[in-house]
């Protein structure tokens, strides 16, 4: 069986460092907001080239907290792509805002600035570009749109840890997830908010700690979403290896591109011009996707789908009033996309087996 991700191999690299860190935390009983949390925040901020990082409980909370810290009008619209994990839209609603959905572009399946410009209008206060699959949305165009319409920009960077983009404006406010399968994954749930503004970072920290900076003094209504100290230990160990792991992902993506180039019916992904992709997911497009997925699984390949149902067709968002045909590119992609195994420890032999199995399944359609 070729695993979709290999968390065992990743753990083997950091096991001793994590064990020593856990022993340190257990000996000091610094379970909540311990020194490792502060150290990780500083290290991840430096890695990301941003002045401030606030560790939080998970990626969904991170998006919500970033929106809440932006002090947007209650009920205002927030523009986001229909092609994203539901958590992006979920966080918008939890922050007291209204999702304003837009289509993605045909080539990279990222937020389409032209479609977003049409969606942005009266009552819209924010835009949430989603850095999907491991590469960044077109941020220069996003910031131009935001300036034209007076929108706050909150980046959903859950899938892009370590990615880069030439000519983009600096990160102002971004949310990320350290869910176990991410490029930088915890041993459970964790997330963070990155901010260029000390004031915004403080607002996020207050909200994530019951609105309190001093014990038993609560300046605002918040909730509990703090980064666990044990998770910070894991993240510090993995962060030290993340740049190398991302390079290994890029090498695996290049190998896939070569292996799949001669297989009829496969549309391989590529990095957008100016992007340094970190390949959180390797998403191809194929005909009769569900049959192809079943065939790969029978051949011992743990392929997956990200994401089979766009946000506007999810029952939880039926109140937005959308239906089939409203976002045709996202809908078409949802029926074609297929995520192949991708992780830093993927071997050439495993990738060759994936390519051979895929070729065989497609020939049998």
Offer a few descriptive terms.
365 residues; alpha/beta; four-stranded mixed β-sheet; 11 helices; 41% helix
Shape: globular
Radius of gyration, Cα only, in angstroms? 21 Å
Quaternary state of the chains: single chain
* Sheet with the most strands: spatial strand order: 1-9-8-6
Q: Mind describing the biggest β-sheet? A: 4 strands, mixed
The amount of helix comes to 40-55%
Tally of DSSP β-strands = 14
Q: Roughly what is the average pLDDT, rounded to an integer?
A: 97
Helix/strand order: HHEHEHEHEHEEEEEHEEHEEHHEH
Low-confidence stretches: none
Q: In percent, how much strand structure appears in the residues?
A: 5-15%
What is the count of helical runs?
A: 11
First and last CA, distance: 23 Å
Class based on secondary structure composition and strand pairing: alpha/beta
Give your account of this protein's structure.
- The strands form five sheets. The chain has a four-stranded mixed β-sheet. A four-stranded parallel β-sheet has the order 3-2-4-5, with helices on both faces. Strands 7-12 form a two-stranded antiparallel ribbon.
- It is an alpha/beta fold and 365 residues long.
- The two termini are 23 Å apart.
